[in-house]
Specification:
Layout lengths: L6 E8 L2 H13 L5 E4 L7 H4 L7 H27 L16 H23 L23 E6 L7 H10 L4 E6 L1
Antiparallel strand pairs: 1-3, 1-4, 2-3
Length: 179
């Protein structure tokens, strides 16, 4: 039976952004994939060092746009040709140029809604509390400190071996983050 880990992970604190970037690259090269870095400002190259990958959000936006546009066009077509056909001024019942504004608007609306919902779902939001906030001193991540956390769910995670790796990266301190 798989039990959830008793700790969330190990958190290493660094003084400079260059140290965090170097440590992240070395941890990734050691095979760790479930890790995250925290800093008070964006660091160029940090996402690549973490092994960031392409996101599925553009696919969901495209899907939302296609569904919205198709649904809008079908809704108007059904209303004017099947459900309530009215011959106004001799125009054809299926007068597609009149459908373009609503079709466009529903395409944009549904694509936007799908973008928001897929972003929230893929980022597992909203998350009211995160275990990383249990770490002492972590509040400085938004002020002047840089942190690298290797999560306990990583397949290579072993508390003692991971601690040795993190301490070899010369952080200010390494702390255990409780769940």
């Amino acid at each position: 039976m798989n039990r959830p880990p008793l700790i969330y992970g190990l958190l290493a604190e660094f003084e400079r952004p260059e140290d965090l970037l170097s440590a992240t690259g070395r941890a990734y090269a050691a095979g760790y994939r479930r890790m995250d870095a925290y800093s008070p400002f964006p660091i160029e190259g940090l996402a690549e060092a973490l092994g960031s990958h392409k996101t599925a959000i553009p696919f969901f936006v495209l899907l939302g746009g296609i569904l919205g546009g198709t649904g809008g066009y079908f809704m108007e077509w059904f209303a004017t040709t099947i459900h309530y056909p009215i011959n106004v001024g001799g125009r054809p019942l299926h007068s597609w140029p009149a459908y373009i504004p609503i079709t466009f608007e529903l395409t944009v609306l549904c694509a936007s809604i799908f973008a928001l919902l897929s972003m929230l779902a893929l980022n597992r939001l909203p998350e009211l509390h995160h275990s990383i906030f249990n770490a002492s001193g972590f509040e400085r991540a938004s002020q002047d400190k840089f942190f690298l956390c290797i999560e306990a769910v990583d397949p290579l995670f072993d508390a003692s071996k991971t601690r040795v790796l993190l301490e070899s990266l010369q952080p200010t301190k390494v702390v255990e983050v409780e769940t």
